[in-house]
Backbone:
């Protein structure tokens, strides 16, 4: 008996929220850098939410659904997000993906290896962002 490959329709039905090992509150209690980032992100998102912009809501929904469990586990998606964010040199995005990866149980070694990929792909311009990521990693994994 062979099984048919899943179609996009079936793959969408298999998507679910990731299971986090740590809450944002627990992360914020562990790391001052993470707390500042999460507090600032929440405050700034409140400004965006007040605008009640349909297109922004659609994009946020797309972003949320992209990182759900699916054919590719959420932890790997977060590591891909970390690599892309480091290559794009977005410290906010790097912080977000480091925190989300940590919450999902990704090891420090896995995060460092992902940052190594970003360094090779992005080149030396990634180094200042890598330094800041390592500072956050040091606080989370102490």
Residues:
């Amino acid at each position: 008996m062979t099984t048919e490959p899943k179609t996009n329709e079936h793959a969408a039905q298999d998507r679910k929220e990731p299971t986090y090992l740590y809450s944002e509150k627990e992360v914020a209690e562990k790391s001052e850098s993470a707390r500042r980032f999460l507090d600032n992100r929440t405050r700034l998102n409140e400004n965006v939410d007040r605008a009640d912009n349909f297109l922004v809501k659609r994009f946020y929904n797309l972003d949320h659904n992209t990182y759900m469990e699916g054919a590719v586990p959420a932890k790997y998606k977060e590591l891909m997000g970390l690599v892309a964010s480091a290559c794009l040199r977005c410290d906010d995005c790097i912080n977000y993906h480091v925190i989300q990866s940590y919450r999902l149980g990704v090891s420090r070694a896995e995060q460092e290896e992902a940052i190594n990929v970003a360094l090779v792909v992005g080149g030396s311009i990634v180094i200042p962002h890598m330094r800041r990521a390592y500072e956050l990693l040091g606080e989370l994994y102490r």
Remarks:
- The domain at 22-41+68-142 is CATH 1.20.1290.10 (AhpD-like).
- The CA atoms of residues 90 and 129 lie 8 Å apart.
